[in-house]
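Example S7 (structure tokens).
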């Protein structure tokens, strides 16, 4: 997977990571808000939340707004990213941090919600499949897996045009050339699947209910549920 290279590149990007997200993600607000808002309409009793590839805690920030009483464990291979997350959530007692490569195995414990944002697409398919099985096994009955990630289009033709549109948007976003070059270096590490391929792998891992709940070109949000859960009464 090249975890050392990934760690080094994200350590380098850590200080400017948050401020650049809106420049690199044209659908930023909808992308981050939709998942947390949607799952909060289904259930509100998440007690233990695990964020894989948590980075600076950006996804967790949106989850905390909906589920403030849950206990959060943030896992990331980049110590610089985790340090920024610690600062973001300073003073909160229901937070734990772990500097680790989660593709080598998840921390022990059973969780109601496992989430990830813009991280799993760095893994090769074999590692993704192993991770999805680990996620399934580390979820409580009725547990949710929420994955915000980058995906290929269903055809090479459309994927080329999605990439072209995305790159042109970034070029005109005002970001400086040096930061754009660092982003392109990170892009070389991406191993994207289509949404359909990802859903198929999650079902193979054991999830009964899996669907894409948001999609904007390269950006999608997939929700997988370990078993069907009735809406809150």
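Recovered sequence:
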């Amino acid at each position: 997977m090249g975890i050392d290279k990934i760690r080094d590149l994200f350590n380098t990007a850590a200080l400017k990571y948050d401020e650049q997200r809106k420049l690199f993600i044209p659908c930023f607000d909808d992308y981050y808000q939709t998942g947390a808002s949607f799952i909060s309409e289904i259930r509100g009793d998440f007690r233990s939340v695990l964020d894989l590839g948590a980075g600076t805690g950006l996804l967790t920030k949106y989850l905390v707004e909906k589920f403030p009483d849950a206990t959060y464990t943030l896992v990331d291979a980049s110590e610089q990213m985790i340090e920024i997350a610690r600062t973001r959530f300073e003073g909160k007692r229901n937070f734990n941090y772990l500097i680790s490569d989660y593709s080598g195995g998840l921390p022990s414990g059973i969780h109601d919600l496992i989430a990830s944002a813009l991280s799993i697409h760095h893994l090769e398919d074999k590692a993704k499949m192993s991770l999805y099985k680990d996620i399934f096994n580390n979820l409580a009955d009725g547990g949710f897996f929420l994955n915000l990630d980058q995906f290929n289009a269903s055809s090479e033709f459309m994927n080329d045009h999605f990439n072209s549109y995305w790159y042109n948007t970034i070029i005109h976003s005002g970001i400086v050339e040096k930061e754009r070059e660092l982003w392109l270096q990170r892009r070389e590490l991406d191993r994207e699947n289509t949404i359909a391929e990802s859903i198929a792998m999650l079902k193979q891992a054991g999830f009964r209910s899996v669907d894409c709940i948001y999609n904007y070109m390269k950006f999608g949000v997939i929700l997988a549920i370990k078993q069907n859960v009735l809406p809150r009464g």
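Notes on this example. The chain is about 45% helix and 20% strand.
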